[in-house]
Design a protein that fits this description.
This protein is α/β, with parallel strands linked by helices. The chain contains eight helices and 13 strands. Strands 3-2-1-4-5-6-7 form a seven-stranded mixed beta sheet, sandwiched between helices. Strands 8, 9, 10, 11, 12 and 13 form a six-stranded antiparallel beta sheet that branches. The N and C termini lie far apart (about 75 Å).
Length: about 300
């Protein structure tokens, strides 16, 4: 009887993981999506599974996990592969596959544990990031490491470009280590708890820009949240202004107060930041509509009046 794999995932990273497994001939028997997510991210994986005639299961809340575990036991997967997933796998699920459960974690372990670590890595101005392949235990990203692969981050990288790098590197790791995953000989290196850090999930409110922030810090926040809603935004008394692109430059007007419009041109508005530098606000919108620089400057002037 051939080895069988149950795949857990959603979103673009999950889709990339599933496509990688199918491309290398992995015997995927079932696809599982998280019950606490819906919309396009789940639809991507559901549609890919449907094209391959793969059954799709939905993981329920932990209190209702019994029937789901029974179904999974009936499938009898030898291995579970997880790639971009928003629910914990309870012990009853982890006990099903004889060869364990393996996670393709978009982040370096143990320094970047958690679900929003790409955002944190950009906000923290990391110059290097990567993907870690590890076995899953009952903790959050705490299981023994199989392998990692790193890549450079630069000042132009945002959530979209880092996501693309994660998909590529994750695919490479899965492809390279697949033979040893399926035969059960992959290494299990314990994580160094002295270097471990868990990064909490970010809330929408944490995307709010305040003028106590430096211009570079604001730019990192914009790049980290460009793929999310509401993203990085300025809250004015009557409006929320979203920044999709921003650039920090030295200011020629050191007397400008933080939050004060310095100049307006055809493409952007320059606003003073807390560190004395200027934030070039480009690709700005309000309520989903692109906002012209002149209109943005008027809103800022009205808010300061």
């Amino acid at each position: 009887m051939p080895e069988e794999v149950a795949f857990f995932g959603y979103g673009e990273l999950g889709l990339a993981g599933l496509q990688t497994l199918l491309s290398i001939g992995a015997p995927v028997s079932n696809v599982i999506v998280p019950g606490n997510r819906s919309g396009p991210g789940v639809d991507l994986v559901r549609e890919a599974a449907a094209r391959c005639a793969l059954p799709v299961l939905v993981q329920p809340p932990r209190r209702d996990i019994g029937p789901f575990v029974d179904t999974l036991r009936g499938v009898r997967p030898d291995l579970i592969i997880v790639c971009s997933y928003s629910m914990m796998l309870p012990p009853a699920v982890l006990a099903v596959p004889a060869k364990g459960a393996v996670n393709v974690h978009g982040g370096l372990l143990p320094q970047y544990r958690g679900g929003h670590v790409t955002q944190w890595a950009i906000i923290n101005a990391e110059r290097e990031f990567g993907v870690t392949l590890h076995y899953i235990d009952e903790g959050v990203d705490t299981g023994p490491v199989i392998a990692e692969r790193r890549f450079a981050l630069d000042e132009a990288d945002d959530a979209y470009t880092v996501g693309a790098k994660l998909r590529e590197v994750g695919s490479q790791l899965l492809t390279t280590w697949w033979p040893r995953l399926i035969d059960g000989t992959a290494p299990r290196v314990p994580q160094d708890e002295s270097r471990a850090k868990y990064w909490p999930l970010r809330t929408p409110e944490e995307g709010r820009i305040t003028w106590t922030m430096s211009a570079p810090a604001i730019c990192r926040l914009v790049r980290a949240l460009c793929a999310n809603s509401p993203g990085a935004y300025v809250q004015l008394p009557e409006h929320r202004i979203r920044l999709r692109r921003a650039l920090a430059l030295p200011s020629l007007d050191r007397h400008a107060q933080p939050g004060e419009v310095v100049t307006v041109d055809a493409d952007a508005v320059r606003v003073a930041a807390a560190d004395g530098d200027v934030l070039i606000m480009a690709a700005v919108d309000m309520e989903g509509q692109r906002l012209a620089p002149g209109a943005l400057a008027e809103l800022f002037a009205h808010a300061r009046a």
